[in-house]
Each structure stands twice: as structure tokens, then as C-alpha cells.
Design a protein that fits this description.
Chain B: Keywords: Auxin signaling pathway, Nucleus, Repressor, Transcription, Transcription regulation. Chain B: Belongs to the Aux/IAA family. Chain B: InterPro entries: AUX/IAA_dom (IPR033389), AUX_IAA (IPR003311), PB1-like (IPR053793). Chain B: Homodimers and heterodimers. The complex is a heterodimer of chains A (642) and B (158). Chain A has a domain at 64-98: Monooxygenase. Chain A is 33% helix and 16% strand. Chain A contains 23 helices and 24 strands. In chain A, the strands form two sheets. Chain A has a 22-stranded mixed β-sheet. A two-stranded parallel ribbon of chain A has the order 5-7. The longest helix of chain A has 18 residues, at 15-32. In chain B, strands 1, 2, 3, 4, 5 and 6 form a six-stranded mixed β-sheet that branches. Chain B is α/β, with parallel strands linked by helices. Helix content of chain B is 28%, strand content 18%. Classes of the chains: A alpha/beta (642), B alpha/beta (158). The interface between A and B is large, with 55 and 42 residues.
Chain lengths: 642, 158
């Protein structure tokens, strides 16, 4: 093995053989065993590593090169974080070798510190706004600006190749800076971002000669027209993936055709809705090597000849595994997709308002399907077909077609999910919108599928009990957390008492993210969660009737988590102040769009967002956000630079 | 339904779990009584059920189509004092905010809803009964069903 040959070159005598043995064993353990012994329980203490003392002593004489080589086998950032806590020299070695940097909360640490710490950084992933921003719960202008990060990296890490941002505000200035500063820039993935226009995209397209991935996933873009597409270099491009599905305006067909013709490495292409069906054939002909395709609109009238040509072009996509887009898919065009079905592993029908009988025709042919996103138009019957035919299914998302509660003329009930949980042995991730549910169904589902890692149930009627027994859904969710021992993410809904949260606190040991709406009776609910749930990292709560007591009693827990979001709950201003004083390394942000004229301690706050940070209070808060100051005399301060 | 035997200093305002099942409209009411926050905006809120904006917009146009409307909903917009009006497809907007943004861009001035102001251009609409109303009073969906024309009033004349 590599390590042993390196060691043999260094002459340190006979003890080297002991070193060699330990190192080889170390590498063996790293690569073949689980990494649980490396997990740390809480920030300050050392990991419970089972290291022989000799290995720890040896690090002083261990040449940096050897450690570096060993660490190159350590991929996951969680493990790297653990490794860096062992001792100073491991910290130094690790930080000099980390290539992929992930920062889950852009305000948890300063960009400068991150830039300085990781000199070999090649890839940066950042997340900004809290998750509930996706559902309009975070007012515009809250924050999450990418600029300080881009600026810091541009100055210090010019070899950065990949930037992935989620829920951040990215301006054209940021994009231009990226284009100008990173010579080898390869990958830009923006998910749920906003603040930029197509001009910024044009800058990236024209300047980044080695660009491989340009993906705009569900961003809000100031769309100034489709010209940006013509800015890619005229010579052959190195594009591997291009996703502009969130843009509105039309791109020129000739620009797109020419781009495809000179992008031989393109594997993933996601068009926007304004790319009409009649031009799809010409595009596909130029990119038969596609593995992922997001079509544009699928509803134009085509004549028989065009249909024949398109059918042929689709059938030529021999490598295609993933299909999405399909806006307004007309039932008569479904047969065009049949040739693709047997190879499909991922199918996103969220924008295809196709009814159940047609969906069955399509899905019954998709025997290799692993990921299915579909509207509730699929109904219980359609899900039964999925259970029968899609035995490889790992992830299912069912979205509501009537976004109001009074639009339920669709027969999707809890039975649909029960069928899929029965029939699909590999199912591990679910997002299911339904009007009402039963405990019995939840218990069945838990029994059938103890391998769930992500279970998100949204019972759309707030406070809806088990509709058969009128009981709260406590017992149902109890079954889920008891049986699904690997559960990492959970969203609960329906009528739930404090008892449900007691079960979750006790049993959901690996739960990292929990979302709650309209639930619980009292502070006890939050107390159960914060005093239990060992692995909890992100908790988001809306419209639940508690606040102060549980929050203050469990303040220490908050430092072990990434963040806590609470909106429309009963948290008082006084409790926020107390919490902030108690916990120096937490930022307690009060978000109030309609603040009262005076703020007595008992006054409730609209929303709070609490997150751990080593960067102190942020300086870019808008007028409706207050970071509670640490020292009681100052009280509330709004440190902001305008 | 058992009441949890927990002590809460805010028990007087906690949700009473022995209440009968609320129907949808009284959910809004009981929430606004028990939760001291933005529940009054719940009718026009775009935050429940928790789906992303793009899907929400897609569903809106789907719903309009299902109700027998054409997907496009063209109305004429006049700026007070300007004889020529502009045509606008209201179905392309997700709500009042995007409508105002678009109008502000179209007429190159800031247009707002609601409060009469000596400084701003205020948007009004003529409903199906022929009456001129302030834009923003009713939920967006109801607005789409009743709006016939839009007028942007001049600041002084409000």
C-alpha cells in the first residue's frame, strides 16, 4: 500500500515496523469499518477514539507527509472535524489537507477565518437563510449575503474551483467577482438563491473557460432575457451540467443548438419552461449522451411527423437515467416517454399535471425507478401501481395539487403511503402531503419500513386528529421514531400533544432535523425535545404554544445545535434577553416586521432565530432584525452598517 | 384527548386540546386568538401548506384553469392622466407584491397598495360590480375573480 512504501523510504529503524503495522491497521479501520468511534458527543471533549497510546505519541515523530497521506483517506467533513480535535499537529495537518469545505450556517463563522484555515480549499459549500425561508416565513432582506465570502475567497484562495450556495443572496457583483478571480473555476450550483440577474450568469459563462457545472436550482433571477446563453465561448466547452430551469425568458434556439453541438461532455441538461416541445427533438439530436434531462414545456400541438421524430430522438437517449421538467404534460404525449422508462432511475413529475390513469401507464414501465416526485393526482390507486412495479424505489415525494384546504377532490389518502411502504423494500425517504391521516397507518408504515432515514408527513389540515379514532397522532409518530432507528430527518403534523414529543425525545437518537407546525400543548413539548434527541442539529417550529421556560432550561443544548427557528410561538422578549446573556456563543435574533412601540419583557416576539456562532453578532441585519446584545446594560442592539 | 399534565406559566393562553375539532375557518380564528402574532394575515398568507414558491405558482394557474378560467387573465391598466392604457396578464403574478413590482417597472414609478398618500401612486381596481376599490383588501385569488380594470392614481388626487 502507498503508506507502507512511503514509510519504508524513511529510515527510522526497527520501531518503524510497529509504526507500519499501526498505520496499516489504522487505514484498514478507516476504510472498512464504521466511523462511529470517531464521533464526538459535544464540542469541548475529545472523541472516544480507540487509539493505541503508541499511535498518539508517534504523531510527534510522524512526518507531516505520512499524516497527510493517511488523512487523504478521510473524506467526510464530520470525520475531519473529529480528527482535527485530537491534537494540535493533527489539527494542522487536517486543515492543510482539507479540500472540500462545508459551512452549514454562513453566520456561524467568519469568511476570513475559513479562508485562512484551509489553504488547499478547492470546493466551498455554504448555506444561508433558515429552511423555513422556502415557505415565505423569513421576510425579504433578512440576510445571507454571499458577497463577504466571495470577496474573502477571491483575495486568498484563487485556486477555488467549486462554489455551492443554498438560500443565499447572490448579486451580479458576486458572480462577476467569481468569474474574474478563480482561474480554474469549474462548478457553480445555486439553490434557492436570489439577487442576481442573467447578466451575472453571462459573466460566468463568458469568462470561466473551464466551466463544467452551471446549475440554477429554483432561484429567483432578474431575468433580462435569453442572451446570456450566447456568452459561452465559441470553442468547444467543457460543460458537463447546465440547469436553467428556473429562468422565465426564452433563449434563442440557435444559441442552444450550437452550445449543445460544441459541448461533447454534457451529461445533464435542464431546460426552462419556455423551451417549447417542437424544438426539443432538434436539441436532443445534438446531445444523445445525456444522462439527465429536464424538458421544457410538454404541451404544444405537434403534427404526426414531428411526433414521430421526437419519439425517435427520445429513444436514442440510451444513457438517460433522470427525467424532469415535463411542464403541462399532455396525456397523449406520455407514450413518447415509454422508450425511456425501463432505464429511468429518477422521475420528477411535480409540474406534470397528469391524472392517475395516465400516470399508471407511465409508472408501470419504470421498474428501475429509485426517485419519484409526483403530484397527489396519482391517488392511492397510482401509488399501488408504484408499490407493485417500482421495487427499487428509495425516495418518494407527493405534492398537493390543490394548495388550499378546500380543494380536496383527489383520492389520495394515507393508504397510498401504506401501499408504497409495503411494496418498496428500499424506501428510505418520504415527503407526503395529505389532508388527514391515522395512527394505524403510521404504525403500519413504521412496521413495514424501519429503514426510513427521512420521514416528512404534512397533514395539511392543522390540528387534524386521527380521522377514524379522533385521537391525536401521538401513537403513530411514536411507532415511527421507535422503529426507524436510522431516522435523520422528521417532519410532524396533525394533532399532537406533548406526549408525541416525549416519544421523539426519547427514541429519535439519530434525528438531526425536526420540523414542527401547529402542535403540542405546552413548554413540556420543547423541553422533551431539547433534553432528548441526542443528535439534534436543526429544529424549526411554527405556531406552537410555548416558549420561555423550556428554552431557558435547555439553553446549553442550543450550543450543540446548528440552529433553532421559532415563529408564531409564545416566546417573550425577556426570555430572549436572558437566553442571550446566558449563552455567549449563541446569536439570538429577533425578527419582527411589526414591532411594538415599547418592548416590555413580557411582550411576545414574532420570530426568533437562534444559532451558534464563533463570529459574534452579525453586522448586516436589516431594520426588522435585532440581535440581542450580550451585556444586560446594552439590552437590544442593532449593529448594522447601512 | 388527554390534557397533558404539565405546568406552563402560559397555560391561560395555550391551546385547549379539549375543544371540538376546528373546521378550517375557525382554525384561523382560534389561531389568531391564541397566538399573538401574524395570524391576522393568515387568509392572504402564502406560507401554508409548506410548498415552495414555484410549485405554488404552478398550482395557482392550474386551479384557475380548473375553475373554467382561461389561463391568461388580461386586464387594462391606466395611469391617471394618461389616455393610453396597458394590457396586463394577471395570471402571471403570484400575488400583490409581484403585481406592484411589475407595475412599478412598467410605469417607471413606485406603485403601492392601500394607504392613501400624498407621495405615492396608489393602485385601485374596478370590480365586477363597477365599483372602484383599493387594491390589496381581499385575498389575491378573490381579487383575480373580481377585478376588471386597474387604475394607478396620482398622489395629490387620492
Amino acid at each position: 500500500m502507498g503508506a507502507s512504501s512511503t514509510l519504508l523510504m524513511v529510515s527510522h529503524g526497527h520501531c518503524l515496523l510497529c509504526l507500519l503495522f499501526s498505520v496499516v491497521r489504522f487505514i484498514y479501520i478507516k476504510t472498512f469499518n464504521s466511523f462511529d468511534s470517531f464521533r464526538i458527543k459535544s464540542l469541548p471533549s475529545l472523541p472516544s477514539l480507540s487509539l493505541s497510546p503508541s499511535l498518539v505519541l508517534m504523531d510527534r515523530r510522524f512526518p507531516f507527509k505520512v499524516l497527510e497521506h493517511i488523512f487523504s483517506f478521510v473524506d467526510s467533513n464530520e470525520d475531519r472535524n473529529s480528527v482535527s480535535l485530537v491534537c494540535k499537529s493533527w489539527f494542522e495537518t487536517e486543515r492543510r489537507t482539507r479540500k472540500r469545505v462545508f459551512v452549514g450556517n454562513c453566520y456561524a463563522v467568519s469568511p476570513l477565518k475559513v479562508a485562512r484555515r484551509f489553504p488547499k480549499m478547492r470546493s466551498l459549500t455554504l448555506k444561508g437563510k433558515p429552511h423555513f425561508a422556502d415557505y415565505n416565513l423569513v421576510p425579504d432582506g433578512w440576510g445571507g449575503y454571499a458577497w463577504p465570502w466571495i470577496e474573502a475567497m477571491a483575495a486568498r484562495r484563487p485556486f477555488l474551483e467549486e462554489i455551492r450556495l443554498k438560500r443565499m443572496v447572490v448579486t451580479d457583483e458576486c458572480l462577476e467577482k467569481i468569474a474574474a478571480s478563480f482561474r480554474d473555476f469549474k462548478t457553480l450550483v445555486l439553490t434557492s438563491c436570489e439577487g442576481f440577474s442573467t447578466d451575472g450568469i453571462a459573466a460566468i459563462a463568458s469568462t470561466c473557460r473551464k466551466l463544467r457545472d452551471l446549475e440554477l436550482r429554483e432561484c429567483i433571477v432578474d431575468d433580462l432575457g435569453g442572451d446570456w446563453l450566447s456568452y459561452f465561448p465559441e470553442t468547444s466547452t467543457s460543460l458537463v451540467s447546465l440547469d436553467f430551469s428556473c429562468l422565465d425568458s426564452e433563449v434563442k434556439l440557435s444559441d442552444l443548438e450550437r452550445l449543445l453541438s460544441r459541448s461533447p461532455n454534457l451529461k445533464s441538461l435542464k431546460l426552462n419552461r419556455s423551451v417549447t416541445l417542437d424544438v426539443l427533438e432538434s436539441l436532443l439530436r445534438r446531445a444523445p449522451q445525456l444522462v439527465e434531462l429536464g424538458t421544457g414545456s410538454f404541451s404544444d400541438e405537434l403534427d404526426p411527423e414531428e411526433i414521430a421524430k421526437l419519439t425517435k430522438a427520445l429513444s436514442e437517449l440510451k444513457q438517460l437515467k433522470s427525467l424532469s421538467g415535463l411542464w403541462d404534460l399532455l396525456p397523449e404525449y406520455i407514450p413518447l416517454l415509454y422508450s425511456l422508462c425501463p432505464r429511468l432511475t429518477s422521475l420528477n413529475l411535480s409540474y406534470a399535471t397528469v391524472q392517475m390513469p395516465d400516470l399508471i401507464d407511465l409508472l408501470s414501465r419504470c421498474s428501475k425507478l429509485q426517485k419519484l416526485w409526483v403530484m397527489d393526482l396519482i391517488e392511492d390507486k397510482g401509488l399501488k401501481t408504484v408499490a407493485l412495479c417500482c421495487k427499487e424505489l428509495r425516495e418518494l415525494r407527493v405534492f398537493p395539487s390543490g394548495a388550499d384546504l378546500d380543494e380536496t377532490d383527489v383520492t389520495l389518502t394515507e393508504q397510498g403511503l401504506v401501499s408504497v411502504s409495503e411494496g418498496c423494500p428500499k424506501l428510505e425517504s418520504v415527503l407526503y402531503f395529505c389532508v388527514q391521516f391515522t395512527n394505524a397507518a403510521l404504525v403500519s408504515i413504521a412496521k413495514n419500513r424501519p429503514n426510513f432515514r427521512c420521514f416528512r408527513l404534512c397533514v395539511m389540515e392543522p390540528f387534524a386528529p386521527d380521522y377514524r379514532t379522533q385521537q391525536p397522532l401521538d401513537e403513530g409518530f411514536k411507532a415511527i421514531v421507535e422503529r426507524c432507528k436510522d431516522l435523520r430527518r422528521l417532519s410532524v403534523s396533525g394533532l399532537l400533544t406533548d406526549k408525541a414529543f416525549e416519544y421523539i425525545g426519547v427514541h429519535a437518537k439519530k434525528l438531526r432535523m425536526l420540523s414542527i407546525a401547529f402542535a403540542g400543548d405546552s413548554d413540556l413539548m420543547l423541553h422533551h425535545l431539547l433534553s432528548g434527541c441526542q443528535s439534534l442539529k436543526k429544529l424549526e417550529i411554527r405556531d406552537c404554544p410555548f416558549g420561555d421556560t423550556a428554552l431557558l432550561e435547555n439553553a446549553a443544548k442550543l450550543e450543540t445545535m446548528r440552529s433553532l427557528w421559532m415563529s408564531s410561538c409564545f416566546v417573550s422578549f425577556g426570555a430572549c434577553k436572558q437566553l442571550s446573556q446566558k449563552m455567549p456563543r449563541l446569536n439570538v435574533e429577533v425578527i419582527d416586521e411589526h414591532p411594538p412601540k415599547t418592548r416590555p419583557d413580557s411582550s411576545p416576539v414574532e420570530r426568533i432565530y437562534i444559532y451558534r456562532t464563533v463570529a459574534g453578532p452579525r453586522l448586516d441585519t436589516p431594520e426588522f432584525v435585532w440581535t440581542i446584545h450580550k451585556s444586560p446594560e446594552v439590552g437590544v442592539s442593532r449593529l448594522s452598517i447601512r | 384527548m388527554e390534557n397533558s399534565n404539565s405546568y406552563s406559566p402560559y397555560s391561560s393562553s395555550s391551546v385547549d386540546s379539549t375543544k371540538p375539532l376546528p373546521s378550517e375557518s375557525s382554525v384561523n380564528l382560534s389561531l389568531s386568538l391564541t397566538f399573538p402574532s401574524t395570524s391576522s394575515q393568515r387568509e392572504t398568507s402564502q406560507d401554508w401548506p409548506p410548498i415552495k414558491p414555484r410549485l405554488r405558482d404552478t398550482l395557482k394557474s392550474l386551479r384557475l384553469r380548473q375553475r373554467g378560467y382561461n389561463t391568461a387573465l388580461f386586464v387594462k391598466v391606466y395611469m391617471e392622466g394618461v389616455p393610453i392604457g396597458r394590457k396586463l396578464d394577471l395570471s402571471t403574478f403570484s400575488g400583490y407584491e409581484s403585481l406592484l413590482e411589475n407595475l412599478s417597472g412598467m410605469f417607471d414609478t413606485s406603485v403601492i397598495c392601500g394607504t392613501r398618500d400624498s407621495k405615492h401612486h396608489v393602485l385601485t381596481y374596478q370590480d365586477k360590480d363597477g365599483d372602484w376599490m383599493m387594491v390589496g383588501d381581499i385575498p389575491w385569488d378573490m381579487f383575480l375573480e373580481t377585478v376588471r380594470r386597474l387604475k394607478i392614481t396620482r398622489p395629490e388626487r387620492c
